[in-house]
Design goal:
169 residues; alpha+beta; 4 helices; 4 strands; globular; aspartyl protease
Length: 169
């Protein structure tokens, strides 16, 4: 069973391998789009639904604090390192279920991927654009996708625990 209640050391290593794979794929994809697209360029993939583009986000999700003057990149970097450190520590200590280890690996890889962008470029590179007619979802990247999937896995894992925090076996 891939998500056992008390993961072995090898299952914990897999969580960090997943984080590394997410980070690597995220950085590779950002290098590709940053090198092959002009800023603001849009190329349809599925007409009426999905484009590739190149946009920069100096803020957080949905460009939150994008116009804050630059201090926000340090706040978001510190937050990403704090959350990633907490997740990594709990994975190493075996405090998470297998599912939570996967969630942690996805979130760590995505968070560090976006931090690297902020520290190197001063903004996050986004390239996935979903839309319908005149409605556009804010552009995002693979790191954002991994973070969202990881958060969803955390929510699913939370349904396996009673309110007092003890795990049901």
């Amino acid at each position: 069973m891939p998500f056992e209640a008390r993961p072995s050391w090898s299952a914990r290593v897999v969580a960090f391998a997943l984080a590394l794979a997410v980070f690597g794929l995220d950085q590779w994809s950002k290098l590709y789009f940053n090198g092959h697209y002009q800023y603001g360029e849009v190329r349809p993939v599925i007409d009426g639904f999905f484009n590739f583009t190149l946009l920069y986000n100096p803020g957080a999700a949905f460009s939150f604090l994008a116009d804050a003057g630059g201090w926000q990149k340090h706040l978001f970097a510190a937050l990403a390192f704090a959350v990633s450190g907490w997740l990594a520590w709990n994975i190493v200590k075996g405090r998470f279920s297998g599912l939570m280890n996967w969630a942690g690996g996805l979130i760590i890889g995505g968070a560090i991927g976006n931090v690297v962008d902020r520290l190197i470029h001063g903004h996050v590179i986004d390239f996935i654009q979903l839309y319908y007619r005149d409605w556009y979802y804010p552009a995002f990247n693979l790191a954002d996708t991994a973070i969202c999937i990881g958060a969803l896995l955390m929510v699913i894992d939370s349904f396996k625990k009673p309110a007092d925090g003890r795990r049901q076996e």
